[in-house]
Amino acid sequence: VELASLAPSAFNLQPWRLIAVRSPEGRERLWRLAQQQPKVLEAPVTLIVVGDRGAWQGDNPAWGELAAMLGGAEAVKPYLAMAEALYGATTERRIKFAESNAALLAMSVVYAARCFGVEGHFMSGIDFAGIKQEFALDEDEEVVMLLALGYAEGGKVLYPRRKRQSYDELVEEV
């Protein structure tokens, strides 16, 4: 997780957090809200990836760090105004801010985990509102996805890798 925390985020605001669900009781609570997907009970830990829709605001500690770096609060004001226009102007932009940044962290967790031989599996077929309530997220926080982590059992492969798009299928050059 510490390696993954190096993931980029808008203005380095890091509008994310992870809830590590490890206990049998916690996994059972999450399993009921994750369409009873077996991996929630089987994996030693499932992360609830949380995005913060309000982290662009001036009370985020990252703004104080930027002010110290730039020589004072006055130097940060244009950045705050830009963040408000980009991320706070509409509900849609607030959601996009939280989800896109938290997704960068989640993907970084998977890549970092692979460096240590740990497999990861994302889940989005879940009861987002139920998980938010069950795990007492703040008003501005949203569940972005779940990520089950663990060591594969003796080379066990759940599904063969399916075809991926080629460069020509994926990229439009202009």
Distance between the termini: 37 Å
- Going by CATH, the homologous superfamily would be NADH Oxidase
Count of DSSP E strands?
4
The average pLDDT score comes to 95
Number of helices: 7
The helicity comes to 40-55%
Strand order of the largest sheet: 1-2-4-3
Major sheet details: 4 strands, antiparallel
Task: Please characterize this protein's 3D structure.
With 174 residues, the chain is of the alpha+beta class. It has one domain: 3-Layer(aba) Sandwich (NADH Oxidase). 44% of the residues lie in helices and 17% in strands. It contains seven helices and four strands; from the N terminus they run E-H-H-E-H-H-H-E-H-E-H. The protein is globular. The protein starts with 15 loop residues before the first strand and ends with a helix.
Quick synopsis:
By secondary structure, this protein is an alpha+beta fold. It contains seven helices and four strands, in the order βααβαααβαβα.
